[in-house]
Amino acid sequence: MTLTQLEIFVLVAEYQSFTLAAKHLGITQSAVSHALKSLESHWQVNLLIREQNQVELSHIGRQLLSYAKEMLNTAQIMQQEINASHGIQQGTLRIGSFGASASIHLLPELLNAYRLRYPKIEVFVEEGTDHDVSQWIQERQVDVGFAVLPRADLETYPLLQDIFIALIPKSYPVAQQSALNIQDLQDYPFIMTKAGSQTHVEQLLKQYRIQPKIMYQMSQLLTILNMVNLQEGIAIVADMSMTPELLQLHPHVVKRPLIPNTQRQIGLAVKDAKSASPAAKAFIQVAQELFSFKP
């Protein structure tokens, strides 16, 4: 058994494709197939179920996948520790990011500062929902990720506070108010975000027992803004995602805070602080220096 075989096993499982795994690694499909057959022969199990053009994990394959990821992660951490002992700050860092709040407001400034300090570390960013990122952290698909806190199942590092705001068409009477009472949402068409904040918006509505008239469910912030701009409904989004530049492009939209004021805390998370890679620890340190003391 080799680390290369384990990496191929993990990639085939994630892509559910020999072809895509081979393309990712820059090797031939036959090399991928040979590596997996050798691994299956070594363990005397069938890791995959191959049916025509479909590839699925077998029962034992699903059981072993998480251990394979753990071993690859440990090997990467060991190599980074060895590099650090030689004074070489290089390696890879996989980051999970969600929604416009993290990907637009936090990540660019943070990546710029990180690259200036650690130019030899190769950075990969995976984007999804808050739930996706948390799952990637648990499965060690990413080394570190942004999270809405608190998260009892992860090791977390608070960075800053954000609030939820309402995007309101200017033609709606409530747009003339300085803030939107959350109970007023029941009186207007509503646009539900399917992006990073969806779970938290749903929890907010449930908390105040509000059942708005959901007219649309959309995952792209720009699409939501365009629909509000067309006077199609009110939306609730994270304040950090709403830049002045975006609002200027949508002149028929106003943003208003909610009553009661609704906050959320954004931070970084890892599965286990003790086993976090040096690259991930350095990323957290840079983030804390940049954001921890900002209001």
TrEMBL record:
Q: Which GO terms describe its molecular function?
A: DNA binding; DNA-binding transcription factor activity
Q: Which UniProt keywords apply?
A: DNA-binding, Transcription, Transcription regulation
Domain named HTH lysR-type: which ranges?
Answer: 1-58
UniProt keyword Thylakoid present = no
What Pfam families does its record include? HTH_1, LysR_substrate
Cross-referenced InterPro entries: HTH-type_LysR_regulators, LysR_HTH_N, LysR_subst-bd, WH-like_DNA-bd_sf, WH_DNA-bd_sf
User: What Gene Ontology terms describe where this protein resides (cellular component)?
Assistant: cytosol
Look up keyword Transcription and say if it applies: yes
User: What is the similarity comment for this entry?
Assistant: Belongs to the LysR transcriptional regulatory family.
The protein here is known as HTH lysR-type domain-containing protein
Q: Which organism is it from?
A: Acinetobacter bouvetii DSM 14964 = CIP 107468
